[in-house]
Each structure stands twice: as structure tokens, then as C-alpha cells.
Amino acid sequence: MDNSHYVSVPNKKVTANNGITYAYREVGVRKGTPIVALNHLSANLDNWDPTIIDGLAKNHWVITFDYQGVGTSSGKVSDSIQLMADDTINFIQALKLEKVDILAFSMGGMIAQEMMLKDPELLNRVILAGTGPRGGEGIENVTKISDASLARALVTFKDIKTYLFFTRTENGKRSAQDFVARLNIRKKDRDKTINWFAYRKQLRAINAWGKEKPADLSDIDIPTLVVNGDNDIMVPTTPNTYQLKDRIKNSRLIIYTDAGHGSIAQYHESFVKSANEFYGEN
Q1: Whole-structure pTM value
Q2: What residue stretches are annotated with the AB hydrolase-1 domain (predicted)?
Q3: What stretch of H or E contains 64?
Q4: In this structure, is residue 226 part of a structural domain?
């Protein structure tokens, strides 16, 4: 298989000390600090936008993986966001990586924040996209919003991400269509879709995290880039995205206009340029 493009890299497996065997893919040259990508609710390896992964892999080593109990990784979905952070750390250690950059989207951004608290020495630079702080406003409503969007998707025969990730403007609708098409480019060796029970377990973990006491992020000094669209219906941009930026002192902010939860996919060219610049800094 072609190892230079995300849609054609082979699926790989690694077993961690916790006994879990993780499914993963890697693309780019294996040198420097690798970027480990933490994905969204219900997502498997095929849910990463290949234009983003390939755009980053031109200059970086990029690794995507399935959390335990997701895709073809073994085990069961973790009960909490904190345990998902432990899960991610176990995967990174299984690959014998001592320092990583993080690309974290949506639920992945929640997991990344817990990693920043648990093991800050492991992390070099972090991008938090389409996410908010623990206890953030409206995060406990993700189940209700997801269920409503799923019903709409079933009626209209569209991918649920059409409604969850993008605005309903003409620009948003066109971007959603293009994004879903990109996700379906890979035809061979596609990943296993998450089952219903694992998906609901992830939802419960997000809802519980959204109701928890906010974390103290003031001591975190990891360079962080916070990214979102100006109209995120899953994790409301205002106040969450701005609060997240304010709570992490060594952080900067990008807000894309006429964009929602999936702004990094809608503005993938601009995002890749900004991400490459961010990861490339000393």
C-alpha cells in the first residue's frame, strides 16, 4: 500500500502494557516529534479528514488510532474522559514515544485536557479544536443534540456530521458535502464502525464530564492552539472556546467565521497552514 497518503496507508496494531491491542495508522516521515491525533465521539480511523492528515504529514510524522473498544482496537470503551486519557497515554507508551504533539478534535480535546493535567511532560504542543473546558456550558446537552441530529440524518439520508459539524448556510452545506465525500475516498481496509452501545457509553462520559467541576488549567504551560467555528452547536463557541483559551496561559485562538463544530474540516487549507506553523515553532 502507498504509505504517503492517509487514504492508502496500512492499518497497524500495537499491544500496550494494559493488555489492549490498539489499531492505528501512521503517515509522513518518522522523524521529529510525532503528532498523535485524538478523535471525536463515535469516530474510528476513517473519520479523520485525509486532507488534514496529509497536509500535516508533509512536514510531520502523524499517528491516528482507535481508543479501546472502538474500531478494531480491543477492550471496552472507557467509562470517563479521564480514563480515556489514561487509555491514550497507554497507546503512546506502547509505541515507545517519549514526547508527542497532539491534534485533538471534539471529545479528543476533552481527553487532551485531562492528559495535560495527568502527564504534561509527555506533551510538546497541543491543538484543541471544536472543544471546551471540563464543566463547560452546554456540554451536558451533547446527547440531546446528537440524538436530534441523528433523527434528522436518518430522515434525509445524510451523514449525521452534516448537521452536527457544519452550519446550515450554503457555504456550510457545501463544505459538509465535500467533507463527507473525502471521508469515503478510502475503499480498501476500512475500519470497523463503532457499535451502538459503545457510542452511548462515550456520550455518557461526555455528559458526565460536562457536569463536573471545572479543572484548574492555570498551571499548564504547554503551548496550545485553540480552534473552533463561530457557531458550534455541540460545544457552544461562546463561552467555551474563549474560556478555554483564557484558562490556558500559553495559548492562542483561531475562530473561523460561518463555521461550526467541524471548522477545521471546513477551512482545512487554512487550518493545515496554521497547524504546520504552530507545530513547527521551537
Answers
A1: 0.96
A2: 41-263
A3: strand 62-65
A4: yes
CATH number for 81: 3.40.50.1820
CA 159 to chain centre: 18
Helix, strand, coil in percent for the chain, rounding step 5 = 45, 15, 40
Name beta bridge partners: 123: 100
Amino acid symbol at 137: E
Q: Does any domain span residue 68?
A: yes
Residues near 29 by beta carbon (within 8 Å), at least 6 away in sequence: 61
Strand partners, 26: 63
Task: List the one residue out of 135, 137, 278 whose CA is nearest residue 217.
Answer: 135
- Smallest CA-to-CA distance from 40 within 234, 246, 237, 271 is with 234
| pLDDT tens-place string over residues 208-218 | 999 999 999 99
Domain span at 23? 12-280
Give percent of the chain with pLDDT exceeding 90.
97
In a domain, 3, yes or no: no
Lateral strand order in the sheet of 21-27 = 12-15, 21-27, 62-65, 35-38, 100-105, 123-129, 224-229, 251-256
CA torsion sign for 221, 223, 229, 234 is negative
Q: Structurally, how many domains does the chain consist of?
A: 1
Please count the other Cβ atoms lying within 10 Å of the Cβ belonging to residue 156: 10
**First-to-final CA distance of the chain:** 34
**C-alpha span between 167 and 169 (Å, rounded):** 6
Cα torsion angle, 128, 133, 138, 139, sign: positive
- Residue 274 forms part of a structural domain: yes
What is the structure's pLDDT at 4? 75
DSSP state letter for 141:
G
